[in-house]
Every structure is written in C-alpha cells, then in structure tokens.
Amino acid sequence: xxxxxxxxxxxxxxxxxxxxSCAPSRNSFNIYVMGWYRQAPGKQRELVAVITSGxxxxxxxxxxxxxxxTRDNAKNTVALQMNSLKPAxxxxxxxxxxxxxxxxxxxxxxxxxxxxS
Length: 117
What we know:
seven-stranded mixed sheet
C-alpha cells in the first residue's frame, strides 16, 4: 500500500516561512487530488489547500495570499509554501491524497508546524 510521507515541518518565528512536502512512499499512478489539512490544539481539522491533477486549487480563507500549493504530476508530489506565518498557523499539518473523484481519502501521519517567538 502506498503511504504518504510528509516533511518540512518545524519551529519558525512569526513572519517566517516553511515549505512542506508530501510524497508517496513508492511510485504511484496519478493522484487526482492532493493537499493539506491541519488541526490546531482545541480545534477541528480543517482544509488548508488542495490541488487537483489539472491544477485547480482551493484555499482556506485564512491562508489565501500567504500559502501556495503546488504539485509535480510526474512525481505525484505536493508542496505547500507557507509565508508570513502567524501563531494561529500552529498546527499539525496532514497530507491528503485521493486517487479518484469518488475514492477514499488517504492521510499522512502529520507534521508539526509551530509558529512562536
């Protein structure tokens, strides 16, 4: 079974940047949609950004203008460039992938992003 491997999380000061990456653990056929959700302490898991194989994107209002999601269809990887980070962005970020429009969602294990002075 293909697993999603996340990297790039860490501790950053407010206003800083991080880049998250997610890749299948082995070669895979094309993934329809990939993206990121996050869960902050005491809050529900929420969509951050998703992108389809055709390049269509959706962003949470709270990250528009600061975060950019991209993907490499040849490698089935997805990245999230996070700029102008705020303490409110602190959360565990989870990679999500779905291989078909009506297929199941698959999740990475999560990577911690902490924005703090």
